[in-house]
Amino acid sequence: MLIKTGVPTEGDIQRVTPSPERMAGGPVAVIECFQKIPCNPCYLSCKQGAIEEFKDINDLPGIDHGKCTGCGICIANCPGLAIFVVDYTYSDNEGLVKIPYEYLPVPEVNSRVAALNREGQEIGTARVVKVQRIKGQERTPVIWLAVPRDLVMSVRNIRVGGQQ
Amino acid sequence: MRIEEHPVLTFQRGEKVKFYFDGKEIEGYEGEPIAAALHAAGVRILRHSHKKNRPRGFYCAIGNCSSCLMVVDGTPNVRVCVEKLKAGMRVETQQGRGELIAKD
Amino acid sequence: MLKTDIAIIGAGPAGLNAAISAASMGAGVLLLDRDEFVGGQLIKQTHKFFGSREQHASTRGIDIAGLLHEKVKEYKNIELRLGATVLGYYPDGVITAEYQGRLLKIKAQRYIVATGAAEKSLPFPNNDLPGIYGAGAVQTLTNVYGVLPGQRVLMVGSGNIGLIVSYQLMQAGVEVAGIVEAAPNIGGYLVHAAKIRRAGVPVFTSHTIKEAYGDSVVQGAVIWQLDEKWQPVPGTEKDIKADVICVAVGLTPLTELLWQAGCKMKFVSQLGGHVPVRDENMMTTMPDIYVAGDVSGVEEASAAMVEGKIAGLCAAASIGCSTGEFDELRSRALSQLAELRSGPAGEKIRSGLKLLV
């Protein structure tokens, strides 16, 4: 399906979702990379040793969610912009999603933006918590979004203001 | 239309200069391709084909395809997608193959 | 007559790497490009590259052009001439070039042709209307010159160029009405597709353009569905308004010089059209002519860079330049190239190369 629509299926997402125990333990990276292409910067950028070394550069990335701290450096280093960090422990009723965002305007901290799913449909509202600039990848800001907890695994983009 | 702000790029533009399109004065930046200056000014029809007189714009924008031939300062068949804009240039819509022998 | 050890035609990702590796072997290099800048099509690639560190993965194409240019400048034995259009190859092994209004004659012991590729077109009614542009052309206009092509774009083709240019148009503030793809599946990398889908852009797989319309400039297109036999299905027409249609249906190698020189050519559709027969060192059937990059088969820029390295090293070695590291450098580059092509994404290239090398 993904290859026809460009949108990963539920099954695709399930395969890369950390365990419920790990999700309950704080921020963690979700690598939504489903196709074997020659690429390895996620491994090279990971300072925690969580992303496994590639035996073959075409392999799908392997991640040890136990070692991942959710620092998000890989988010801005992934050429495919396919890595997100989710955090179910952000607050009692909100979770946090960190996404790469290479459009203008960059949203203001504390502003509210439309939260979009993997098909670009608006599914709720997100509050911008932080705009993080990763060293060496400043032109790929990482936007920290507080969203309702049930949307943490669905929000993957935002719309700032009107049209995008 | 010009891009003023871009999330990744900053644009280095030359000096703003005046030039003429079919006799009408318009502005562009020196050193950019004539086609870019025309497009920014809303001009998309660059010539008419020689058999059926159909309007043509550019196609490849890197000097390969000959879709964008115009008359520049009296010289026909100039690839305006790669020819650089200079102040005061006279750029004209080309009809068909262009007049190769100067009229005087 | 200008004399040099190695003349390289084209200063894109392949030509720049060829120049650097040939110069590192001690060869005198003359690097020519018809444009006034180095980098070829890298200068409009605002996205980050795939591959590994050696191919500058995770660095944007525009920045790779700058890095390679700096490296070229470090070598005193590379002479760079920009605005030099190579016109022909002659039987005595001389090439001519137009340079600053003059005709240059150049005699090199070896030539590396790295002229790249050009965009293909697609036949459909009214495909010549102004506003119907190659996707790469729109990328040049937008990313190099900062001019918007229009307000609403319909993209034809979902290969990497179609997907990337759609994304880059949105970054520039242009609306993308959709991507039309004749094949049943998306052709480019799915991470690129996911980026444009989560921005709300539809991808119409198994669809093609029936016709474009517009009164002197394009105003829209009618698209329709294709069945399993790639035949259009009447009644499935959709009207899509757009003031720009981008054609991203692939590239074809710019091989004029190779034909003229008499290199043996072969039609290999997986590689984009007619390509030169060559060995693994990138030498054509003419021992003084090497090739690298898209002219030898359309592929990703990361592969073009490695091919450039191989061609530069081997061309230099063939005229007696040597360094203790040659064997190691060559075999490392060859294995990098094999690695880049070894996955499922490299299947088309591998099958094409089988017919050629």
From TrEMBL, chain B:
<dbReference type="Pfam" id="PF13510">
    <property type="entry name" value="Fer2_4"/>
</dbReference>
<keyword id="KW-0560">Oxidoreductase</keyword>
<dbReference type="InterPro" id="IPR006058">
    <property type="entry name" value="2Fe2S_fd_BS"/>
</dbReference>
<dbReference type="InterPro" id="IPR036010">
    <property type="entry name" value="2Fe-2S_ferredoxin-like_sf"/>
</dbReference>
<protein>
    <submittedName>
        <fullName>Sarcosine oxidase alpha subunit</fullName>
    </submittedName>
</protein>
<dbReference type="InterPro" id="IPR042204">
    <property type="entry name" value="2Fe-2S-bd_N"/>
</dbReference>
<dbReference type="InterPro" id="IPR001041">
    <property type="entry name" value="2Fe-2S_ferredoxin-type"/>
</dbReference>
<dbReference type="GO" id="GO:0051537">
    <property type="term" value="F:2 iron, 2 sulfur cluster binding"/>
</dbReference>
<dbReference type="GO" id="GO:0016491">
    <property type="term" value="F:oxidoreductase activity"/>
</dbReference>
TrEMBL record, chain C:
<feature type="domain" description="FAD/NAD(P)-binding">
    <location>
        <begin position="5"/>
        <end position="308"/>
    </location>
</feature>
<protein>
    <submittedName>
        <fullName>Sarcosine oxidase alpha subunit</fullName>
    </submittedName>
</protein>
<dbReference type="InterPro" id="IPR051691">
    <property type="entry name" value="Metab_Enz_Cyan_OpOx_G3PDH"/>
</dbReference>
<dbReference type="GO" id="GO:0016491">
    <property type="term" value="F:oxidoreductase activity"/>
</dbReference>
<dbReference type="InterPro" id="IPR008143">
    <property type="entry name" value="Ala_DH/PNT_CS2"/>
</dbReference>
<keyword id="KW-0560">Oxidoreductase</keyword>
<dbReference type="InterPro" id="IPR023753">
    <property type="entry name" value="FAD/NAD-binding_dom"/>
</dbReference>
<dbReference type="Pfam" id="PF07992">
    <property type="entry name" value="Pyr_redox_2"/>
</dbReference>
<dbReference type="InterPro" id="IPR036188">
    <property type="entry name" value="FAD/NAD-bd_sf"/>
</dbReference>
